[in-house]
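Posting this for the archive.
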Amino acid sequence: MEQEKSLDDRKRARFDAFVDIYYLLGLACIYVTSLAFPIIGIVMAIILKTGALSERTKKVGSICLILGLIGIGIWLLVGIGVFIVATMFLSTYGWYW
């Protein structure tokens, strides 16, 4: 039979769970920032990949780089889409409404 965990063990497990959740939320913020603001994501990727000592951190930097490049592609597509819609609108209604 398993013995019940002592109070210190339960506090330690709760603290470890909190640290894990905090780490995952931090990663999610870094990834969302890399996707929404690609230049910041690419800068973070360069910093993490060149200055990191652990492989785990270098992997986070690689993911930031990929998301930054995807973010640039998305922003370009949005810009082209806005340009096309504006051109269609202006060709239909002219410069003066």
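The chain has three helices and no strands. Residues 44 and 61 are 7 Å apart (CA to CA).
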